[in-house]
Amino acid sequence: MLNFARRYGTLIGFVLILVLFSARLPDTFMTARNWLNITQQLSMLMVVAAGMTIVMVMGDFDLSVGSMASLSGIVAALLFTLGYPIWLALGLALLVGLAGGLFNGVLVALTGILPFVATLATLTMFSGAAFVVSGGKTISGRAIPEAFGNFARDGVALGPVTLPNLTILAAVVVLVVFVLLEQTTFGRRLYAIGGNIEAAHLSGVKVRRLKLIAYALTGFAAALGGLMYASRVASANPTQGSGLMLNAIAAVFLGMTMSEQGEPRILATVIGVLIIGVLDNGLTQMSVDSYVRQILVGAIIVLAVAASSISKSSRR
Amino acid sequence: MLATSLRTLRRGAFIATALAAGSFAGAALAAKVAVITPYLAQPGTQFYVEAFQAVAKDKGWEVNVIDTQGDVAGVISRIEDMVNQKVDAIVINVDPAQVTAGLQAAKDANIPVFGMDAGSDPLLVTNVTSNGYAMAAETSTYVADRIGGKGNVVMFVFDAFPPVQARGVVASAVFGNFPDIKILDKVTPDVSDGGIADSRAKMEAILAANPTAGSISAVWAGWDQPALGALQAIEAAGRQNEGIVITGIDANPQARAEIAKGGNFEASVAQDFKGIGSATADAVARVLGGETLKQHVIYVPTKLVTAANAAQ
Amino acid sequence: MTLLSLEHISKAYAGVPALRDATLSIAAGEIHALMGENGAGKSTLIKILAGVVAPDTASIRIDGSEVGIDSPATAYRLGFRFIHQELNVVPALSVAENIFLGRAYPLRAGVLIDWARLNRVAGDALRKLGIGHIDPGERMARLSLGDQMLVRISSAFLSEAGAPARLYVMDEPTAALTREESARLFAVLREIRASGNSVLYVSHRLDEVMALCDKATVLRDGRTIDTGRIADITHDDLVALMIGRRVEEAYPRPITAPSSEIALAVEGVAGEGLAATSFSVRKGEILGIAGLSGSGQRHLLRLLSGDLPVKTGRLLLDGRPHRPRGPAASWSAGVAYVPRERRSEGLVVSRPIYQNITLPHLGTQSLGGTWLTPRRERRFAVQMGNDVKLRAVGPNQRALELSGGNQQKVVFAKALSGAPRLLLLDEPTRGVDIGAKFDIYSIIRDMAAKGMAVILVSSDLAELLGMCDRIAIMRDGAITEIADAAGLAEDDLLNRCYGRNPSTAEAA
């Protein structure tokens, strides 16, 4: 029973939240329209959290994803103002993400700096870079090509509904990360590192190289999330991604409470992201104060993590 | 059902019928209005929102104030949620160009969106704000009057930020209309650390280049920070008794304190934040009442702050 | 006179019985062995004594009067002292602080810690064990594993007013100790006996038990099978009682003789913790490495496994130079490594058995080195598990749910999966019960018969003599001699480990 609650507590909580919202918002919550909204609202967090899952599988984490998201948006916007074609500006911004992530990987894997310290340092560095590149200003208006802003507003018509582009993009990223973590030797080895880094190393897992790649992928996902954000607001601001980092870590943690061994799993991360997003969406619709909403999200994280670890310790 | 009749009313169709329905069920009818801002923590925004809520309370509206805490994309998300909730009106306090996706969703659902000091946008019913042109005219005419229409004026401008750029244009035009006023320099300070320090450094250089008393009659600043920096430079150079007149705009607390002292910093202009909040509520009420607004921008009067009223 | 008597002790975890009506009676002034295979219920019994686990039913008497043990504090007050198998030390603290761990520090003026007295009292506790070489002020982290264990043990001998010690419970205290250190501990235990106090001694090392203990109680499947005087029982009887059947021999016989072909040649190789070393291993040969703990055995295996770099000299594997740049290169060259600590070095215990087995071989156990083929992996793991007589629910079972012996079999299955040419074993039977031990020895014999070269590092000299063709002796990071195992006696080997062999006086 306890085991059941530990394993499925978070999922049950999620279902209860859905039931509550459906009851309180009978006409508007469980509608295709609202769910398309939710998936679109969550798409950026989803992409960043998917990337975060990759490093957290190894037992590491990356605090710099938020500022990387801001930086990539700013880089793209700056390149737009310099007249670069959209594809080139986006490509270069993604490259910045890859390079920034690789830099994190070098600090953690080669220099041996603790992930917390290394990515805290790059958090400030990337954020500073975003301010330097942008001059501290929001880049918006005519500088941003219309096609770029339209991307986030458009979608693919699927019968009566239109699947938003951002939703599709997030789904693709989740799928790629799923395949990577669950279907490839790369993912298997990352999980081995997360389970026991020494045993993995002695078993021939190339720990350093994998860490480099994993951090680079996380940086890339952060940059992609940042570009999606920039497209949604048709502008770029040196701080706009800063809220993503904590939410991404929270989402992965919520997901971790759902796996037996407390390992991050990408599909569990999806649930974690949905919990955060659905709470925002539903509580907003129920006119619950924004600050109370924050307290609730935090309380749910504590509850979920505590429920899983309390039952773990009671087994001893 | 009632909300539907309200929206019918707003569209201006069957006004007579709708009015009848409205008066029939008036007591139970509470219009739902959402105020969405990423900046609720900032003092100015709090004034708008409080004043807005005061009016809304009188009208019996159900107001949902949503703070996304700096997250602009969050504003779009919350607009979408509010559209989904079929609220009667939405008020935003963010650059509308950055939330076009949300504004479009509201427009598609025929829900009016109002800007509360947000910026102009075709997707907004109207934007309620202070008149930047008028504010610049107030301080520049104050300067011209104090120096008797004659002398050298230093201007602090910032063309990269549109609202401040407009202020500079107006002040230049005012000074240009006085043949004996000469613009000594137009300075664009570096604002990365707030603007005071660099303005002070720039002003010190100008003071050094114009050492004789009376060679600088006034400093006109497009906002308060450069005015404060210029004041510091003048006091540091020991030239506070030459009668150099300094003006700013915005009347922030630090500026008010200096103006109250009766020194060189003589005037600034205060935006009426509360006025903006209540004017926005009025605009919402008018539209909910079926009126079509002619103005895409509604200006709220500003107030000149001098030593006489700085402490208020 | 009976000091402690336990009767009708039963305990079930989630419906699975760990103890069924077990009985244990310890007299004052006696060293009493508690024997049994892993999972027989020894640790549960000890935990009940320690007040950590509440029994379902129990009757516990001390000096004839009934007592209840509801908490570790009660156990302490009753005079029980525990030394656990796991090394519970805080590396960042000093030796003296570790000895005082969980006790009240001596104070000055009621608030300030009296460091001088703390160190003096800790020093006394150490001296009681005849330990003069450990400074109580030293940081724990700077001590060898054996020394850390000694410190841990000495904390049980801390003299304290109020609750005089009556019974010392020792769970595998010698697991990390050298012979010399063990001998010192035994001397202290005999002193305790002479003073009228008692010891409950848990060990897998039968020789120790036979030499040290007065009586033995054997548990099997949670039941007390027998209790008797050690003097009345033989080594083989004890084993038979523990595993419930007779084993003819402790070590399986060699299947074939080693070939004359050299599998691994080590030519003047030096590296971290290893002085220039030369030797070779033939195909099908089992080469033992003996030596006092910390003589470089671990470094040698780490170097051969690719974990530590070769600084000078060269390795030849089947005649071809082998210079691994990491464990990955060694695995793919056919060098398999079974590290000493199976939970922290050998296994990813949170992962399923099959993933542990295929981890070093994912390159070949996947499509194109990239795409996982879990179904094929599981089939392969089941087959490998059968080869090593693994007892598990299935390939998806997590390694942490297995007993020590079965975990070690998973490590072996992993090592053998790539059909390696060289197998490196570091204490492969440490903490493994007797039944599983024999299985592991059989696996090693089988592999040797298939032409695999085996290097076996062990501190169990009987094991080395029973399994190896030749035994190399290491001291101070160098191999001092290599002797044929045949004709060597255990004390002879031990003397050589201490460098007291007249024939190699020049090397010592």
Automatic annotation (TrEMBL), chain A:
Subcellular location: Cell membrane
Coiled-coil segments on the chain, per record: none
Gene Ontology MF terms: transmembrane transporter activity
Membrane-spanning segments: 42-61, 68-86, 156-181, 212-230, 242-259, 266-285, 291-310
InterPro entries linked: ABC_transp_permease (IPR001851)
Protein name: ABC transporter permease
Species: Devosia nanyangense
Membrane topology annotation: Multi-pass membrane protein
Keywords: Cell membrane, Membrane, Transmembrane, Transmembrane helix
GO-annotated cellular components: plasma membrane
Automatic annotation (TrEMBL), chain B:
Family matches, as SUPFAM superfamilies: Periplasmic binding protein-like I
Pfam families documented for this protein: Peripla_BP_4
UniProt GO MF annotations: carbohydrate binding
Keywords: Signal
Location of the protein in the cell: Cell envelope
Primary location: other
Residue ranges constituting the Periplasmic binding protein domain according to the UniProt record: 33-291
Keyword Signal tagged: yes
PANTHER family: D-ALLOSE-BINDING PERIPLASMIC PROTEIN-RELATED
Full protein name: Substrate-binding domain-containing protein
Organism the protein comes from: Devosia nanyangense
UniProtKB/TrEMBL annotation, chain C:
Keyword Secreted on entry: no
Start and end residues of each ABC transporter domain: 4-501
CDD domains registered for this protein in UniProt: ABC_Carb_Monos_I (cd03216), ABC_Carb_Monos_II (cd03215)
Record's keyword terms, sorted: ATP-binding, Cell membrane, Membrane, Nucleotide-binding, Repeat, Sugar transport, Translocase, Transport
Coiled-coil portions: none
Highest taxon of source: Bacteria
GO molecular function: ATP binding; ATP hydrolysis activity
Cited PROSITE patterns: ABC_TRANSPORTER_1, ABC_TRANSPORTER_2
Keyword Translocase assigned: yes
Family to which the UniProt record says this protein belongs: Belongs to the ABC transporter superfamily.
Protein name per its UniProtKB record: Sugar ABC transporter ATP-binding protein
Organism listed in the record: Devosia nanyangense
